[in-house]
Amino acid sequence: MGSWLEGGPSGEGDHGAGLGLAPSGPGSAAPLGRRALALVLDWTLSLLLASAFFSSSEGPFLERADPMVTLAVFAVESLLLVGTLGFTVGHRVLGLRVRRAGATPDGPLPDDGRAPGLGRAAVRTVLLCLVIPAVVWDSDGRGLHDRSAGTAIVRR
């Protein structure tokens, strides 16, 4: 029985088959649990940075950060790291990465190991920060933000 970090009862699923992703192991679609935990880690890091460097009030440390400043820190982290490296801090810790995904007339895009680039990362980040696109999935298990950006989160 697989855990919620691994996905499904067997730890595998058929998500990503339409994108040409591996059915299991490295390069397969990342399970929801790992993606959610990576998001929590990235948001916590953003909150810590916003509280430490951009707070303008007194009070408990984590309550000092303005929510919009925390969101801006999160957006900058996501844009720069995904665009240039292909992963955020949370993705890296949990063994995930963001890759280009989609289809061409000749079939699925090959995984060349490169980061998605700043353009795809910008689309993905803006939609991720709006939250709703991130909780709407397609049949391959991608959030609307990844589908719109032509990306997918996979296991490293």
Key words describing this protein structure:
two-stranded antiparallel sheet, mainly alpha, RDD, single chain, 5 helices, 40% helix, two-stranded antiparallel ribbon, 156 residues
Low-confidence stretches: 8-12
Helices and strands, in order, run as: HHHEEEHHE
Structural class: mainly alpha
- Distance linking N and C termini: 22 Å
How would a crystallographer describe the biggest sheet? 2 strands, antiparallel
Summarize the amount of helix as a percent range.
40-55%
Strand content: 5-15%
Strand order of the largest sheet: 1-4
Shape: elongated
How many DSSP helices?
A: 5
Task: Count every beta strand, where a strand is a DSSP E run of 2 or more residues.
Answer: 4
Structurally, the number of domains stands at: 1
Please outline what is shown here.
The protein has 156 residues and is mainly alpha-helical. The chain has five helices and four strands, in the order αααβββααβ. Helices cover 40% and strands 9% of the residues.
Can you give a write-up of this model?
The chain is mainly alpha-helical and 156 residues long. The chain has one domain (17-155). The chain is built from 5 helices and 4 strands, in the order αααβββααβ. The protein has helices at residues 32-53, 67-84, 89-93, 118-129, 144-149, and strands at 96-100, 103-104, 107-108, 151-155. It has a two-stranded antiparallel sheet. It has a two-stranded antiparallel ribbon with strand order 2-3. Helix 1 (32-53) packs across helix 2 and helix 2 (67-84) runs antiparallel to helix 4. The longest helix is centred in the N-terminal third of the chain and has 22 residues, at 32-53. It is elongated and about 55 Å long. Mean pLDDT is 84; it is low at 8-12. Residues 1-22 are annotated as: Disordered. Its main location: membrane. Residues 8-19 have a biased composition (Gly residues). Keywords: Cell membrane, Membrane, Transmembrane, Transmembrane helix. Residues 30-149 form the RDD domain.
